[in-house]
Amino acid sequence: MKFLSFLIGFVFIWVSMFAGCSESESNDLDSEFSDGDSDTDGDSDSDTDTDSDSDTDSDTDSDSDGDTDSDTDSDTDSDTDSDSDTDSDSDTDSDSDADSDSDSDADTDSDTDSDSDADSDSDTDTECTDIPPDDQYTCAEQVSWGKCGEVWMIGFCMESCGVCTGSGDGDTDSDTDSDTDADTDADTDSDTDSDTDADTDADTDADTDSDTDADTDADSDSDSDCGVLPVNPNSTEAVRNVLCYLHEMKGNHTISGAQDCSWSNPGDIEYINSATGKYPAIIGGDFLYNDAVEQAVSYWQQGGLSMIRYHMGIPNGADSYESSMSSTDMNAVITEGTNEYNGFIDRLDHAASKCEQIAASGAPIILALFHETQPNGWFWWSKGTGDQFRQLWDIAFEYFSNRGINNVIWMMPFSGSPNSSYFPGLDKVDFAGSDTYGSGQPFGGMYDNTVSAVGSSTLPLSLHKTGIIPDPAAMFNNNEAPWVLFSTWCDTWLRDNPISDIQRTYDSPYTITRDELPSFN
Q1: How many CB atoms lie within 10 A of CB 96?
Q2: CA 243, CA 51: separation in Å to the nearest integer?
């Protein structure tokens, strides 16, 4: 029995030893095959040696008494030598014949349409000061006469008026409406061939087409400032500004004027200046005479305005003052194709040519083409009926418009007996007036009759010709006759006025002289 137990134990030990050897050899085989050279041209060589010794002693005692005592002593010595040699040869051949041929064709088309209207209200306040405009009147007097609202006051009595430089009310309004439409088309074609061998050749062709259209509308219409439209929609900016000024002065000031006749000695304008130290704001001329253009341009350049009439001779006769008082066949004059009609067109061509010459300087003209019109008047154009006169006016108005004469302010110049049947209509007249050599200023009755003749209480009215220099204080006494302008006739008619009356009129706070006119450019 003991022999059997011994035999079993022996077999058990033998089997255990055999199994341990087999496992160790298997590990050695695996370790060998795991030594690899990895040439990646980044090759990694790794050598690993592992020795593992495992000794196990097991003693078993078996008693056949049915009791089995099993004493097992298991001593395991595990020696592991692990030599791990890792050769990491990382050869990285990066041939970067980096021929990076980068052909970049970039075509960029950029179309930008920009419409810019900008509304910008800017109130500019600067330091207020008082600079008396002349040696005669203080700022307090100017204020008491109501001159604060006038353009010419800018830069003078600002402290007394309670405003600053910039405009008559101290505010500078700049209306700019800005609408921007921007359409941008950008096409970019980019072809890039890149071989990376460290050499980079880059060819870049860039074609950029950029078209930009910018439309900026800064609408600044002078008629929008006063709400008054000239009868000629193509009128110049200066015409619009003067027309606005006439409406602004209506009812509170009168603009001084004087006819300056070439035969007067001394000249009428200089005569007034010698008496008052001032010049009238408006000089009077006549297209019948050769000095009309030079006179108008020179006065404009000195800061003044011109009112020009035309003592036009009859269309089928001489162009002279004597001829202007003759009679003609009015029906023939207004009938196209007749000798009288063609002669009338020649007269209009003469006046229009003069207007064109004046227009080159930028000067506007107050045109009194058919002056002193009334029923059974002195001049040939008013010796017919009211209907004939209105047709005559229409022909002249259409001729000037078609000719492109845009520097004219159309004034209807009645005589002292204004009549509504001779009025051309508010669509062909910018403003109107009457004249007289009589006394009885400020001619209130004539003013009222003119209002009735034009059918409007808002149209500025002028005393466009007078022998007696008016008294502005009487004009504006309860606005009895608030003529927006006056013009004294020349030579002996002017000199028949006492010097003291001329001085009174030109010194009046109601009177606008040349130095007080704003710029109409």
Answers
A1: 14
A2: 119
Cα gap 336→90, rounded to integer Å: 110
The rounded distance, in Å, linking the Cα atoms of 114 and 130 is 44
Q: Is the pLDDT of residue 11 over 60?
A: no
At residue 492, the pLDDT reads 94
Residue 133: name the closest of 144, 141, 121 by CA. Answer: 141
Q: Which long-range contacts (CB under 8 A, 24 or more apart) does 421-424 make?
A: 421/375, 421/385, 421/386, 421/387, 422/373, 422/374, 422/375, 422/382, 422/386, 422/389, 422/390, 422/453, 423/390, 423/453, 423/454, 423/455, 424/390, 424/393, 424/394, 424/397
Q: What pLDDT, on the 0 to 100 scale, is given for residue 130?
A: 72
Q: What is the 3-state secondary structure (H, E, C) of 158-203?
A: HHHHCCCCCCCCCCEEEEEECCCCCCCCCCCCCEEEECCCCCCCCC
Contact 329, 343 (CB under 8 A): no
| Helix, strand, or coil (residue 461) | strand
Mean pLDDT value across residues 68-78: 37
Short-list 381, 400, 402, 404, CA closest to 334: 381
Q: Do 54 and 19 touch, CB atoms closer than 8 A?
A: no
Q: Which residues of 6-36 are buried (b: 16+ CB within 10 A; e: fewer)?
A: eeebeeeeeeeeeeeeeeeeeeeeebeeeee
* pLDDT score of 267: 93
How many C-beta neighbours within 10 Å does residue 200 have?
Answer: 14
Element (H or E) spanning 272, and its range?
Answer: helix 268-276
